[in-house]
Design brief:
Blueprint: E1 7-10, H1 20-28, H2 35-52, H3 59-73, H4 79-86, H5 99-108, E2 112-117, H6 121-130, E3 139-142, H7 153-162, E4 170-174, H8 177-185, E5 189-193, E6 209-211, H9 214-226
Parallel strand pairs: 1-2, 1-4, 2-3, 4-5, 5-6
Helix pairs in contact: 2-3, 3-4, 5-9
């Protein structure tokens, strides 16, 4: 395949955009320090559980429901007013410091750069513009267009089809072990950037590449794709 058809797919939340703003929002409301991590973990748990039943619930609806349950468990009342202050924060996230250089490197190496998110396309595009990343991204794909959450195998394959890619000439970069594991299950190369977790989950298939720095990871994964993996 020609070089321009090598596709580098990036997860979005935590891989590209930090959830520190969410931590700050919870803290400003006097909620415990662990609230952000608990909320996001329960959000993914709930989404994966519902998805396993063959039902699709978009990110915003799932986040609202999970947050409602969590806030009630924490004794926050009224929960509705807090939810309306928290959910907009997903549109205000900042990119990790290594992101611009990593994306520029990917483009310089001839990669087709795709952001693939469990969130909405419109929110992701807003974050891209807010952080000045527009020039380095070729496509944004949301699971909304397929009605199924990652890490189901066919959503990775479906995302690649939408951008004219093939699994054998594509790689997934993510901060989540479940995401790189899902991409590998779909036939893609994978690289894991160490963000919130200090070690990779031992029950999941280890990715080909691991790094603390997104720039280094993009360099190694891109070179592997260019060499035919």
């Amino acid at each position: 395949m020609d070089q321009q058809h090598n596709v580098l797919v990036f997860d979005v939340i935590e891989t590209i955009f930090s959830l520190d703003a969410l931590s700050s929002a919870f803290h400003s409301l006097g909620l415990p320090e662990y609230t952000k991590d608990l909320f996001f973990a329960q959000l993914l748990r709930d989404a994966f559980a519902v998805s396993a039943t063959g039902t699709y619930v978009p990110f915003a609806n799932m986040a609202r429901g999970t947050l409602d349950v969590l806030l009630n468990n924490l004794g926050v009342s009224p929960a509705d007013s807090v939810i309306e202050r928290i959910l907009p924060v997903f549109g205000q996230l900042n990119a990790h410091p290594d992101v611009p250089k990593a994306l520029a490197l990917a483009k310089n190496k001839g990669m087709t750069v795709v952001f693939f998110t469990n969130g909405s396309k419109s929110n992701t595009e807003g974050l891209i513009t807010k952080n000045g990343l527009d020039n380095w991204i070729d496509h944004v794909v949301s699971i909304d267009s397929m009605g199924q959450w990652k890490p189901v195998r066919n959503v990775y394959q479906g995302a690649l089809q939408k951008v004219g890619g093939e699994t054998g000439h594509s790689a997934m970069i993510a901060a989540h072990a479940w995401d790189t594991n899902g991409a590998m299950n779909a036939g893609m190369l994978a690289g894991w950037v160490r963000r919130q977790d200090s070690s990779f989950h031992p029950a999941m298939s280890a990715p080909a590449f691991v790094s603390d720095n997104l720039v280094e990871l993009v360099d190694r994964v891109s070179d592997s794709l260019l060499a035919g993996r």
